[in-house]
Amino acid sequence: MKFDLHVHSEHSKDSESSHGDILKIACKRGLHGLAICDHDTVEGGLACEKRARELGLEITIIPGVEVSSSKGHILVLGIRENIEPLLTPEETILRARKLGGTVIIPHPFKRSSHGIGSFEGLDIDAVEVFNSRCLFNGANQKAAAEAKRLGTPAVAGSDSHIPEMVGQAYTEIEASENTVDAILKAIREGKVAPAGKNTPTPIIMKQMAGSVKRKLKKKLFGRE
Fold first, then answer.
1. Where are the domains of the chain?
2. Which residue among 2, 16, 67, 148 is least crowded, i.e. fewest CB within 10 A of its CB?
3. pLDDT of 135
4. Over the range 43-59, which residues count as b (16 or more CB within 10 Å of their CB) and which as e?
5. φ, ψ (nearest 5 deg) of residue 68
6. What's the confidence (pLDDT) of residue 198?
7. Residue 217: per-residue pLDDT
8. What pLDDT is recorded for position 11?
9. What is the pLDDT of residue 61?
10. How many angstroms separate the Cα of 196 from the Cα of each of 60, 63, 129, 170, 200?
């Protein structure tokens, strides 16, 4: 099954992707499911899960969050409560475990996206070794090499901030059934393989332009 494990919705300040548009592209690209991982809030995942039910779509939505730890970002999948930002990575992961979360380190060596750097010694389930939003593959290659060295399961995600990015990268998951619990169990067991391709540069530039526009608006008018 094909899952994009790293998607941002309009609940992230740096994204304007509506849940309807995300679901439309996900279905068009043949995804079996995706994880909504907005910055420091689970609300986007819960809302997208509800929207998929309303539309009667046969696609599995995993509620998640991209937590801003003190050293960088950490994805936590399968939780329905927020985790306080700016805790240490160890404290963040401990909170995630108490909530029953599955922990993935995204783009660890991509500093411009708040990568955490070395993940050796952390209690994690997988590492994002292919992030389609990387213009160059050096950070992805370093993550893949480190995951292999440590024997950590490797996954992929689009890190989509606009709908066109959804499904550019995805994870092949060997699960017993297409349910949230079964998918997360397969991830923890390492029954995963990264797949997909880099997001085309024009699409990345479109996303970056939107981000700059939002920052300028906030600076000039004090709002998003």
1. 2-221
2. 148
3. 79
4. ebbebbbebbeeeeeeb
5. -90, 95
6. 87
7. 58
8. 97
9. 98
10. 19, 22, 12, 6, 12
Per-residue confidence (pLDDT) for residue 148, from 0 to 100: 98
149: which residues sit within 8 A by CB, 6+ positions away? Answer: none
Residue type, 41: T
Fold of 2-221: TIM Barrel (3.20.20)
Sign (positive/negative) of CA torsion 134, 201, 10, 221?
positive
Per-10-residue mean pLDDT, the chain, length 224: 98 94 98 98 98 97 98 98 98 98 98 95 98 91 98 98 96 97 98 92 75 60 58
Is the Cβ–Cβ distance between 15 and 182 less than 8 Å?
no
Query: What integer pLDDT is reported at residue 213 of this predicted model?
Result: 60
Cα-to-chain-centroid distance, residue 172: 15
Instruction: Tell me how far CA of residue 209 lies from CA of 24, 111, 216, in angstroms.
Output: 23, 19, 11
The span from the CA of 132 to the CA of 136, in Å, is: 10
- The helix (H) or strand (E) run that includes residue 192 is strand 192-196
**Phi-psi category of 75—alpha, beta or left, where left has phi over 0 and alpha has psi -120 to 50?**
beta
- Beta partners for 68? 73
Beta carbons of 37 and 61 less than 8 angstroms apart: no
Q: Is residue 179 classed as helix, strand or coil in its secondary structure?
A: coil
Distance CA 169, CA 196 (A): 4
Scanning the structure block, which residue is given the tokens 């939780």?
A: 79
